Amino acid sequence: MSFSTSRSRSSARNNVRRQPADIASLLVRGGMLAGVALSLKLWFPFHRLYPTAPAANWLAVGPAWIDALLTIVMIASLLAGERFWRVALVALAMLVLRDQSRLQPWVWEYALLLIGLLSSRLETCRSIVIALYLWSGIQKLNVTFATRTWADVTSGWLPQSTWILIPLGEIAIAVALMLARTRRVAVIAAVALHATILIALVASHENSVVWPWNIVMAGVVVVLFRMDSGQQTADSGMRSMQWAVVAVAGVLPILNLFNCWDAYLSGALYSGNTEQAVVIVSPAVVAHLPEVIARNTWQQSAPRFIDLNRWSFDELNVPAYPADRVFRAVGAEVCARYADNGSLRILGRPDLLSGARTSTTIPCVELAYEARRLAAPALRNRHLASAAEGLR
Questions:
Q1: Quick one: 387 exposed, middle or buried, by C-beta within 10 A (0-12, 13-18, 19+)?
Q2: Over 60: is that where the pLDDT of 382 sits?
């Protein structure tokens, strides 16, 4: 009798401890599915004109239905039980390898949190969230965020001087979440911060794909830092995974300060602290561009250029992935399809104090040479078929 009672009490305690993890997993998986739903062409690239950027050219060989199938597998695995989450992560990894534009900050964060939940230690998830706030705040401490990015996000409905509250607030939240004494205040501040950002984004009609992310992050903070009171155990293999994930989320972003790690893996979304790129084209080319590209092409004065970030937002509902290698891959495709006598111009990260950017211009002929040297024949055939399909 006593053994049965003890076992039932232990089971009840385990259920109480498991509840925060279950809620957190629902939030993370729901956020990921919402993000996919709001950026369908990113995941189901049928009739898509914005070029893909595979990690290696041979990885993108094959028709668009391969991406669709992988996306369906990922979605089904996220909806299934915990034992299928690894399948979802593998499918996601394959999708990112086929197109690095899919490695959006919210995708990266959800993937890390899902790995943390699989490790059976919510401490891992808490460390990931703390790292996100810390690096997000650090990335926004620059003059470009102060003078341009914050004004774009708020559309002027908040005073310009309020910009400093965002980076300092995120850094303060990260520090306060580490300390038990200040954790409750930090949770309230985090929820208020996400509510403010969400209102600003909705009011300005900016980047709807991250609206669910702000809702999810507010919920995750509450679950991880207010609801959870139990300590989970993990075997040595999972403990190693925990430390690896924490290092990726919290330590590797240091390398971004030296341009050795991607900005979007370092909390740089809406920071103003990322690279930009355009494809310079002649007026004759502009007249023959498809509508979705033409309306995202600067035509008021010379030089005319295709704004890759605006085009990506317009067609995929996500920003262009701000990495030199991705810009080169996208630029090479644009040159091959529409502007073989143009050039790709990459604007480097702005100076923290002046906002000045360095500029690198790469002629289309040089990009074409690189593409011919690296691309497999099957890949070139796929790109030509994709371009023809998109122009129908």
A1: middle
A2: no
